[in-house]
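INFO batch 0412 | record 1 of 1 | parsing
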Amino acid sequence: MSDAETLLDPEESWDRVAAWKAGIDDLAARTKVMSERVGELTVSATDHRRIVEVTVDAQGALVDIRFGSSLHGYPPETVGRVVMETVADARREIVRRARRIVGETIGDDSAVGAAIVDRLARSPQGASGWPSDHDGRLRDERSGEW
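INFO prediction complete | emitting tokens
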């Protein structure tokens, strides 16, 4: 049977429509799983000096902050920078995890998945976070070291 005859064959047409619908149903189910898994994401991050631990949700919003005992002795400006950098680290990790979930559920080549990861990376809370000094390191105000 030629391609033209296959296209005109009603039985073949129904089979193609059924296969197309099954593909769409499968993609919808995988997209739902992806959405649920990304929506449940939370990430906690701690700076290397253990001044602060932060937790962000899937949109990068700060949902918890805890200060460690090493907080004492650091000036407020340093604590502020450490908090912002640690939040940025957690937000970057949210994007990495979301990207992995997209790959596992709907595929790395999915336009929908790419749009979701891009939205997370560019959210108002943003994965880019706070600019830091010296390639992401902050100056230790007590020792003066980077």
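INFO post-check: Strands lie at 42-46, 52-57, 62-67.
INFO record closed
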